[in-house]
Amino acid sequence: MTVEFLPAPGTPVELIDTPAMIVDLDAAEANIRDMQQVVASGGGSMRPHTKTTKSPYWALKQIEAGAIGVCCAKVGEAEVLVEGGVNDILITSEIVSVSKINRLAALARHASIKVVVDNAENAREISEAAVSAQSEIGVLVDVNIRINRCGVEPGEPTTTLAKIVDKLPALHFAGLNGYEGHVFGFGDERIPETLEALEKLQYAVSEVNAAGLPIETVSAGGTSTHDITCKVPEVTEVQAGSYIFMDGQYVDQKLSFRPALTIMTQVISRPVPDRAILDVGLNLLQMITGHPVSWVSTEPNLQNSPKNTAHFL
């Protein structure tokens, strides 16, 4: 949609062209406040992940509410955040290509930038780029705590890499990063599964401390596990992200956050009483995690299915 057709703030809902993404500001801001309160009461700090919003506007809202900074997954996202006024960012994915590492080092001249690593050679490449750019980059060693994605194993592999990072010029060893994202959807097993994963991170912390390296930051957690992770003494900050807008995947977990983002659509055809065709399709709604949740106040039990790139049934 071109700028001239975007609805002005305050436009009545019935005058907004469809399909349209709608954010309930009251709900989103309440979610920000509620998460901040839960994590703070548990003894942690919030460093929300911006994977949901990818927006400096919302990142600054979260910082205003008490977050110490934000997370993102890519250098390009960090560049947008810094340009928008965010000055404390943790990049939670390994950055390996030469061009991205150089951009990372340049960006660190303008904001406090931290990045995760799980490979000594990658750490050396980042160090060389930071030296060349005359910047300093904070580094968290990425620890695998059963998600089996990125990250070195806790214990000797983590400690060895931390020692290497600590000695590299233009790098500052800041601590450890772990993510128990595999716990999502465990239902009644959420608490024991989360604590089992975090025991691995706690072990990594104890081993690095025993090696004489100070740890400033232990970053972990997500929306599914925030209320558990924030109470673990070793964890200093929680990376939850989805909570700001929420989504249908969290319904069964009965979390307190409210759905704040919807796609407003309308019926363009109803050829028979029990079939309605909507003006939204797969070119707008991704289906990686299942169908979107239908919501019509007068028809709470509606089911939906995609028909093609432009239509849902």
Describe the structure.
This protein has about 325 residues and is an alpha/beta fold. The chain has two domains: about 1-20 and about 265-313, no CATH class; about 25-255, Alpha-Beta Barrel (TIM Barrel). The chain contains eight helices and twelve strands. The protein has helices at about 25-40, 55-65, 75-85, 100-105, 120-135, 155-165, 190-210, 225-230, and strands at about 20-25, 45, 70, 90, 110-115, 135-145, 170-180, 215-220, 235-240, 260-265, 265-270, 275-280. The chain has an eight-stranded parallel β-sheet with strand order 2-9-8-7-6-5-4-3. A two-stranded antiparallel sheet has the order 1-10. α4 (about 100-105) crosses α5 (about 120-135). The protein is globular and about 70 Å long. The two termini are about 25 Å apart. The model is unreliable at about 310-313 (pLDDT under 50).
Lateral arrangement of strands in the main beta sheet: 2-9-8-7-6-5-4-3
Cα-based radius of gyration, to the nearest Å? 22 Å
Shape: globular
Largest sheet: 8 strands, parallel
Uncertain parts: 308-313
According to CATH, what is the topology of the largest domain?
A: TIM Barrel
CATH class of the largest domain: Alpha Beta
Total strand segments = 12
* Helix run count: 8
Give the class from helix and strand content and strand pairing. alpha/beta
Strand content: 15-25%
Q: Give me the oligomer status.
A: single chain
**Total domain modules:** 2
> Percent helix among the residues?
25-40%
The arrangement of helices and strands along the chain is: EHEHEHEHEHEHEHEHEEEE
Say which CATH homologous superfamily of the largest domain is assigned: Alanine racemase
